[in-house]
Amino acid sequence: MPDQHTPAITVRSAAPGDGAALLRVSAAIDRETDFLGTPGEGPPWANAPDAYLQSLAESGDGVFLVATDGAAIVGYLGATAPRAQSARGAIYLFAVGLRASHRGRRLGARLIDAVEDWARARGAWRLELRVVVDNRRALALYRACGFEIEGRMTATFAIGEVRHDTYWMVKRLAADDEPASAAPFDLTLSPRSSSRLPPPWRTASATSWSRPMASSGSSRTARSGGRRGRASRTMPRPSSACCARGGAAASAVRSPAGSRTGQRRKASRA
Predict the structure, then answer these.
(1) Average pLDDT of span 115-119
(2) Based on C-alpha coordinates, what's the Rg of the chain?
(3) pLDDT band at 85 (very low <50, low <70, confident <90, very high)
(4) 156 membership: H or E segment, kind and range
(5) What gap in Å lies between CA 12 and CA 26, rounded to an integer?
(6) Using CA atoms, how far apart are residues 259 and 164, in angstroms rounded to an integer?
(7) What is the spatial distance between Cα 54 and Cα 64, in angstroms, rounded to a whole number?
(8) Strand partners, 69
(9) Mean pLDDT, the chain, as a whole number?
(10) CA 82: distance to chain centroid?
(11) Given pLDDT bands bounded at 50, 70 and 90, which one contains residue 174?
C-alpha cells in the first residue's frame, strides 16, 4: 500500500497537453512488448498528437485514457466509436499498453473499468477488441474483466516474419431491460438441399438453361482429329420441370453411355 509520501496512481482522460508524453510512453512500451506497435513506427496521429486528442474530446468519437504515476504516464487505453449512428453502440479498444515496471498492479483493469464507464454514459452496448492468441497476460486480463472470445482470425498479426492468429473479444454492456439482439442468420442447408452446389454457369429457372459460348438451342459442330465431323448435333435442352430440380438437370445432360441420350451420341459419331 502506498504511504503518504508515495504519489497515487490515477486514471484519467488524456488532455491535449499530454500528446508528447503519450508518444514517449507509447514508444517505450513498444520496445517492451511484441504485441503492440513495431518499435520506431509510431501511431497514426504521431505528427499532431495534441490536435488528435483535442478532436477526440470535441467529437465524442473516442477517448484516450492514461494511467499516471505522479507526473509520469505509465499506461494508456485508446477507444473509438464508429461514425455511423447505427453502430456507435459498439466501442472498439484499439490500444492498451502498460509499462513493464507497472504490470501486475491492476492498472489494466482500472483502465478498462474507466472506458466501460465512458461507454455506458454514451449508451454503448458492447466493448470490442482484438488480441494475439499468444498474448497470455492480456488474455488473462480481458477474461478477468468480463470479455469473451467471439471469434478467431487467422494470420492477422505479424511479429517479425511470423504471422499470428488473433482473437476477437467482446464484453456486453446492455442492461437486462434493453431489447434483445436479433438471432443470427441460419445459413445451414435444409435436409433436402444438396451440399454440392451447381457451377455458376448453370442457372435453374423455369424457362432457361445456359452455358458459356453456347446459347440455348444453338447447334455445335463436332470436331474429330482436327477435321469437321460428318454430323452436327444440337446440345439437348432440359425441360422446365428438370431445371426446377437443379441437380436433376445435370444428370439429364450428362447421361451415361448406356442411357438413351448416350446411345444417341454413339449413333451420331458412327
Answers:
(1) 96
(2) 32
(3) confident
(4) strand 148-159
(5) 16
(6) 55
(7) 10
(8) 9, 72
(9) 75
(10) 15
(11) confident
Level-2 CATH architecture, domain 9-172: 3-Layer(aba) Sandwich (3.40)
Amino acid at 187: L
CB 89 within 8 A of CB 103: no
Torsion angles phi and psi, residue 55, rounded to 5 = -65, -35
C-alpha cell at 85: 449512428
- Asked whether 269 and 232 are in contact (CB, 8 A), the reply is no
Amino acid at 154: T
Parts of the chain belonging to CATH 3.40.630.30: 9-172
> Quick one: pLDDT at residue 234?
46
> pLDDT grade, residue 112 (50/70/90)?
very high
Residue 233 · residue 269 · CB < 8 Å: no
User: β-pairing, 90-98 with 126-132?
Assistant: parallel
Set of cell numbers at residue 196: 454440392
Rounded CA separation 248/238 (Å): 9
- Are 55 and 33 within 8 A, CB to CB? no
Percentages helix, strand, coil for the chain (3-state, rounded to 5) are: 30, 30, 40
Using pLDDT thresholds of 50, 70 and 90, give the confidence band for residue 24. Answer: very high
Question: By the 8 A CB rule, do 78 and 106 touch?
Answer: no
